[in-house]
Amino acid sequence: xPAAPIFVVQLHDARRLHYDLRxxxxxxxxxxxVPRGPSLDPTVKRLAVFTTDHSIEYAEYEGVIEGSQYGxxxxxxxxxxxxxxxxxxxxxxxxxxxxxxxGHFKFRLQGVKLAGVFALTRxxxxxxxxxxRDDDADPLLDLTVTExxxxxxxxxxxxxxxxxx
Length: 165
Fold this sequence. Notes:
- By secondary structure, the protein is mainly beta.
- The protein has one domain (6-162).
- The chain has helices spanning 96-102, 143-146, 157-162; strands at residues 6-13, 17-25, 28-34, 45-55, 63-65, 73-85, 88-89, 92-93, 104-111, 115-122, 127-131.
- The strands form 2 sheets. An 8-stranded antiparallel barrel has the order 1-2-3-4-11-10-9-6. Strands 7-8 form a two-stranded antiparallel sheet.
- A hairpin with a 7-residue loop joins strand 5 and strand 6 (73-85).
- It is globular and about 50 Å long.
- The mean pLDDT is 94.
- Pfam families: LigD_N.
Protein backbone atom coordinates (compact mmCIF):
# COMPACT_ATOMS: atom_id res chain seq x y z
CA UNK A 1 0.00 0.00 0.00
CA PRO A 2 1.52 3.36 -0.98
CA ALA A 3 2.32 5.88 1.72
CA ALA A 4 -0.17 8.69 2.22
CA PRO A 5 0.79 11.92 0.45
CA ILE A 6 2.21 14.67 2.62
CA PHE A 7 1.13 18.22 3.24
CA VAL A 8 3.00 21.11 4.81
CA VAL A 9 2.00 24.61 5.84
CA GLN A 10 4.95 26.99 5.96
CA LEU A 11 4.69 30.44 7.49
CA HIS A 12 6.64 32.75 5.20
CA ASP A 13 7.58 36.34 5.94
CA ALA A 14 8.29 37.55 2.41
CA ARG A 15 6.96 40.84 1.05
CA ARG A 16 3.91 40.07 3.19
CA LEU A 17 3.47 37.50 5.93
CA HIS A 18 1.49 34.53 4.60
CA TYR A 19 1.03 30.79 4.96
CA ASP A 20 2.03 28.47 2.11
CA LEU A 21 -0.21 25.40 1.88
CA ARG A 22 1.63 22.66 0.00
CA UNK A 23 0.10 19.31 -0.99
CA UNK A 24 2.07 16.42 -2.49
CA UNK A 25 0.68 15.64 -5.94
CA UNK A 26 2.50 13.56 -8.55
CA UNK A 27 5.92 13.94 -6.91
CA UNK A 28 5.83 17.71 -6.32
CA UNK A 29 4.29 20.06 -3.78
CA UNK A 30 1.35 21.92 -5.33
CA UNK A 31 1.32 25.27 -3.54
CA UNK A 32 -1.10 28.01 -2.54
CA UNK A 33 -0.24 31.21 -0.65
CA VAL A 34 -2.91 31.81 2.00
CA PRO A 35 -2.47 35.38 3.31
CA ARG A 36 -4.47 34.96 6.52
CA GLY A 37 -3.73 31.29 7.08
CA PRO A 38 -6.11 28.36 7.38
CA SER A 39 -9.30 28.78 9.41
CA LEU A 40 -11.17 26.12 11.37
CA ASP A 41 -14.42 28.07 10.89
CA PRO A 42 -16.51 26.57 8.05
CA THR A 43 -18.16 29.96 7.42
CA VAL A 44 -14.80 31.59 6.62
CA LYS A 45 -13.46 31.53 3.06
CA ARG A 46 -9.74 32.23 2.86
CA LEU A 47 -8.07 33.53 -0.27
CA ALA A 48 -5.54 31.00 -1.61
CA VAL A 49 -3.29 32.13 -4.47
CA PHE A 50 -1.97 29.27 -6.59
CA THR A 51 1.82 29.52 -6.83
CA THR A 52 4.67 27.53 -8.36
CA ASP A 53 5.25 23.88 -7.59
CA HIS A 54 8.01 23.08 -5.10
CA SER A 55 10.15 19.97 -4.71
CA ILE A 56 9.16 17.45 -2.04
CA GLU A 57 12.41 18.22 -0.21
CA TYR A 58 11.19 21.77 0.38
CA ALA A 59 8.58 20.41 2.82
CA GLU A 60 11.21 20.38 5.59
CA TYR A 61 12.79 23.75 4.78
CA GLU A 62 13.14 26.30 7.54
CA GLY A 63 15.46 29.26 7.51
CA VAL A 64 15.93 32.66 6.00
CA ILE A 65 15.96 32.99 2.22
CA GLU A 66 18.62 35.64 1.62
CA GLY A 67 18.51 38.57 -0.75
CA SER A 68 15.79 40.76 -2.09
CA GLN A 69 14.42 38.46 -4.77
CA TYR A 70 10.84 37.19 -4.85
CA GLY A 71 10.29 34.80 -1.96
CA UNK A 72 13.12 36.02 0.25
CA UNK A 73 12.52 36.16 4.01
CA UNK A 74 12.08 33.86 6.99
CA UNK A 75 10.28 30.51 6.66
CA UNK A 76 9.10 28.09 9.36
CA UNK A 77 7.22 24.80 9.10
CA UNK A 78 4.00 25.78 10.86
CA UNK A 79 2.31 22.40 10.35
CA UNK A 80 2.80 19.16 8.45
CA UNK A 81 1.40 15.69 8.15
CA UNK A 82 -0.42 13.55 5.63
CA UNK A 83 -3.61 14.01 3.71
CA UNK A 84 -6.30 11.87 2.13
CA UNK A 85 -7.93 12.81 -1.16
CA UNK A 86 -11.73 12.94 -0.83
CA UNK A 87 -12.57 14.45 -4.22
CA UNK A 88 -15.24 12.33 -5.85
CA UNK A 89 -17.17 12.44 -9.10
CA UNK A 90 -20.20 10.14 -9.25
CA UNK A 91 -18.92 8.37 -6.12
CA UNK A 92 -15.54 7.58 -7.70
CA UNK A 93 -12.34 9.20 -6.47
CA UNK A 94 -10.82 11.79 -8.78
CA UNK A 95 -7.02 11.87 -8.63
CA UNK A 96 -5.59 15.04 -7.05
CA UNK A 97 -4.00 16.42 -10.23
CA UNK A 98 -7.30 16.11 -12.11
CA UNK A 99 -9.21 17.63 -9.18
CA UNK A 100 -6.88 20.65 -9.16
CA UNK A 101 -7.14 21.01 -12.95
CA UNK A 102 -10.94 20.95 -12.62
CA GLY A 103 -10.81 23.58 -9.87
CA HIS A 104 -12.11 21.71 -6.82
CA PHE A 105 -10.03 19.59 -4.44
CA LYS A 106 -11.41 18.14 -1.20
CA PHE A 107 -9.05 16.47 1.27
CA ARG A 108 -8.69 15.38 4.90
CA LEU A 109 -5.62 16.68 6.75
CA GLN A 110 -3.94 14.79 9.56
CA GLY A 111 -1.28 17.12 10.88
CA VAL A 112 0.20 18.27 14.16
CA LYS A 113 -2.13 21.32 14.27
CA LEU A 114 -4.63 20.92 11.45
CA ALA A 115 -7.08 18.05 11.17
CA GLY A 116 -10.26 17.34 9.30
CA VAL A 117 -11.67 18.05 5.89
CA PHE A 118 -10.80 21.13 3.83
CA ALA A 119 -11.62 22.14 0.26
CA LEU A 120 -9.85 24.30 -2.30
CA THR A 121 -12.11 25.80 -4.96
CA ARG A 122 -10.98 27.90 -7.90
CA UNK A 123 -12.80 31.16 -8.53
CA UNK A 124 -12.43 33.39 -11.58
CA UNK A 125 -9.04 34.68 -10.41
CA UNK A 126 -7.75 32.68 -7.47
CA UNK A 127 -8.77 29.91 -5.10
CA UNK A 128 -10.63 29.75 -1.80
CA UNK A 129 -9.64 27.51 1.10
CA UNK A 130 -12.56 26.47 3.30
CA UNK A 131 -12.85 24.20 6.33
CA UNK A 132 -15.64 21.67 5.83
CA ARG A 133 -18.11 21.16 8.69
CA ASP A 134 -16.92 18.14 10.65
CA ASP A 135 -15.86 17.20 14.19
CA ASP A 136 -12.59 19.13 13.73
CA ALA A 137 -14.28 22.44 12.82
CA ASP A 138 -14.05 25.07 15.58
CA PRO A 139 -15.20 28.62 14.80
CA LEU A 140 -13.81 29.87 18.12
CA LEU A 141 -10.25 28.56 17.68
CA ASP A 142 -7.72 30.49 15.57
CA LEU A 143 -4.59 28.32 15.38
CA THR A 144 -2.68 31.09 13.60
CA VAL A 145 -2.92 33.04 16.89
CA THR A 146 -2.75 30.25 19.50
CA GLU A 147 -0.08 28.13 17.75
CA UNK A 148 2.52 30.49 16.23
CA UNK A 149 5.56 28.19 16.56
CA UNK A 150 7.27 25.86 14.12
CA UNK A 151 6.56 22.18 14.62
CA UNK A 152 10.20 21.43 13.72
CA UNK A 153 12.35 24.04 15.47
CA UNK A 154 9.87 25.48 17.96
CA UNK A 155 10.75 28.98 16.73
CA UNK A 156 8.31 31.75 15.85
CA UNK A 157 8.69 33.48 12.50
CA UNK A 158 10.22 36.48 14.31
CA UNK A 159 12.76 34.26 16.08
CA UNK A 160 13.67 32.60 12.77
CA UNK A 161 14.13 36.01 11.12
CA UNK A 162 16.45 37.02 13.98
CA UNK A 163 18.75 34.05 13.17
CA UNK A 164 19.81 35.83 9.95
CA UNK A 165 23.31 37.15 10.43
